[in-house]
Amino acid sequence: MNFNRRNFLRGSALTVAGITLSGCDTLDSTRFSYPTRTTLKAKKPGDKLNIGVIGVGGKGWSDWNPMFANGENIVALCDVDRTQLDRGVAAIKDKIPGANVKCYTDYRKMLDECKNLDAVTVSTPDHTHAVAATRAMRQGCSVYVQKPLVRTIWEARYFEKVAKDSGVITQMGNQGSEGDGLRRNVELLHAGILGKVTEVHVWTNRPVWPQGIGRPEGSDPVPDSLDWDCWVGPAPMRPFKSGVYHTFKWRGFFDFGTGAFGDMACHTMNLPFRGLRLADVVAAETLMIDGKNNETYPNKSIVKMTYAARQGMPAVNLYWYDGNEKPSADKMPQVIATLGDVPKTGCLIIGSKGIMCSTNDYGQEAYVALKGEDKMRSTTKHEALIDIPQTIARCKSNQYLEFVNAVKGTETAYSDIDHSVPMLEGMLVGCIAQQIPGKLRWNSCQQRFVGNELANTLLMPYVRKGFEF
Description:
ten-stranded mixed sheet, 16 strands, six-stranded parallel sheet, 29% helix
């Protein structure tokens, strides 16, 4: 890996944004108790929000459409691909003939011109999340931002600072958070049904896009419908290659995405992170890696992360597996006895009084075996869990409308910065461990790796001129 180049590329962010990585705003469990924030542009429950959309197609389509179906005003659409803009306008005018929707390929121009926005959705490749969302927040807009919220640790802290300073509502798009099943399983873990938990395993079948590859040579003509300059945005400029980056395969590249870890851990780690009240990661190390190279995340890996002790609970070793790697079946005899095999994706939480296994990406369905039990039972059917009280409010509809209602003051966004930023910081430490060999020691208070300047070069994003924070 060309570390001198990476150090140079990431050297401009601190100066551009005017804040430092030092200080002692420690990411501990007290960050789960932010007071409810109200937006600068306070809305009444019956009012409609004026929403700007950044990233119309792909995942963006399923982000803004529920808000539109709820009757919110979609007043501006921005997408670097004009075919997606045309599709979005057609969908809106199909339901509201004659609707006046402004269209842009550059989010900067949209935010400069549209001063009537109450909220903005950001559903673009990871590398443009932070620059677009923080610009919107500084204008008083609440933001719904697809996972993994941002691409680098520095951006996560900057995102948090801007959100708090602006008083806006944020929601990270880990949609499984809306489910009653996830929230119930979090309640059960909060109740201590597993006793002292010291070991967690989380695994995914991702990536389903190319990783472990180098940068392709040459270039192709940019399609007339694509604004390639705005697609690249703050990242270092590179030639367009057909079918390589836009629309889906960007996820594995260091400059644009966060690989399988950053893409899926916002879902699969959601249950253990919330349920165990995890906070500071203090160490990370890649135990196995295949396909390591200079341009993209690996084909597969196993990463061990250590979370600090908190609130009387012990430190937790969390093992992340991607590329269809899984924990050994020997770790979960009750799971094998019940389900016959290790699920293709999920998480296993091991405590002194029992184990819990989630069998999907979102923590909605889980099984538990308490100490002495040979087989697992659904958390909805185990008699020892039935009378544990509900302590977490349920989402009234879905995560998108929970965000809308939070802006209007009638619900609380469950994936606001009090959850998304602490969880993301640990995940991004893991992403850096996939790039830097050896055991990394992370100091969240100082926002630096201890004794490893090579790893510290990856904390900050490159910021191309014209796309500054």
